[in-house]
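Hi R.,

Here's the input for the F0G complex you asked about:
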Amino acid sequence: MSDRAFLRCIQPGCAATYGISEARYDCATCGGLLDVAYDWDRLTVPGSLSFFAERWATRHEPLDFSGVWRFRELLHFAPQKQIVTIGEGQTLLQNVDPRRVDLALSAGNLHFQYEGMNPSGSFKDNGMAAAFTAARMLGRRRVGCASTGNTSASLALYASLAKTDDGAPMRAVVFVGAGKIAYGKLSQALDYGALTLQIDADFDACLQRIREATERLDLYLMNSVNPFRLEGQKSIMFRVLEGLDWEPPDWIVCPGGNLGNSSAFGKAFVELKELGLISRMPRLAIVNASGANTLNELVSRQGLKWNDGEWDQAIVDSHYDAMTRDGRKAKTIASAIEIGRPVNLPKALRSLDAMNGVVCEVTDDEILDEKARIGRNGYGCEPASAASLAGLRKLIADGVVSASDRVVCILTGHQLKDADATVGYHTSMFTGDASERAGAPRRSMANRPVRVADDIDAICAAIEKADAS
Ligand code: F0G
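And here is the predicted structure with F0G in place:
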């Protein structure tokens, strides 16, 4: 076990530290979230990021092949022999012609980081590689999470492959809201053999319940409150930099749910800057769905700020009290980010502060149009992922992002995760519910299937008619 890594409370006024082998998710002194922190002076860190490019030549070695562990000097918390990898992170930055998505950015300035290409089809695998490594290091066997679907799919996959040090299989328990997660994701948890508890509750309540369960049972929690998860997710940013020849972009745009990614991205860049491996920070844009807009509400409307760790908790409390009082729950077609009480809120505030970040929100209709636009260009993604492009469009229209900025949108999950949302979009002509359709705008990107009789003349006529229109 590394004595050069430890856990540290993120509250600057507390900064209590704990040994790396403590399975803690929050600070015993003040209840704050924890970081994995490093004694960098006692670690060997490469003098330049281009060092990592050399690992391409040795990618027959599993650790050099992994898109997480080939950056292992930057998340050095476990002995090499306990590292878990299933080949995650084979995702490369894709340059996209902005005209193809009708975006007013200069040519060459738009990129998609397509995390749907991970083994379980979402960015979560970056985090699970690190969380399962931690579980091994801590000698834990039963692992669990609450999930809007992707965390549970990823956890179930890793648990089906990873083993404890003495060769015992891992046991996965996942808590999901009954009827709340997309079928593609549910099917993964079932297929990979996880004990799947469908709870009559939303994500926020499921997370609360599993936290209670970890206090009673020997159950290692792998939600993004687990600080090791976020260490793995830092690597998404390392690969973005690699795709840009180690030159930071101007903007990272990502969807915001439980705010693990935004927390990890900020930590990654702060550490790289401290280590002198980058010379400037990109800006961060976090995009909420309008139906799950806690962060945007608190930050953009109510002015909540990190404020050196002294953020105004009264603003947060009164927002949550109002949600409870009014019975308001998160509700969006982007079920992955249907979260009302993001646990990583403080870390996300810290990232926004460090990266001069902004928050915005987009409607479900905007998300679905952008999802179809992304699909039309060959990068199928699930609804939550498309929030990043929808948010970018808004930020350009508002003059926050300019045409000359270099932008990276994170596409967090694969298109096949939520086929219902895709087919639903393309088969309905208008936005909104059936009851609201009068006067509703057309779905601008819908590619409706054509019903045709089993008759060759009718089939050929349908093809010619489509060509002519
Ligand atoms: N995109 C996708 C596809 C997701 O699955 C999630 C989160 C997010 C974005 C939001 O990321 O939480 O880091 O802000 N999914 C979690 C889950 C909550 O349980 O699968 P975040």
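One thing worth noting: Residues 122, 147-151, 224, 255-261, 336-337, 382, 384-385, 412-413 surround F0G (CB under 6 Å).

Cheers,
M.
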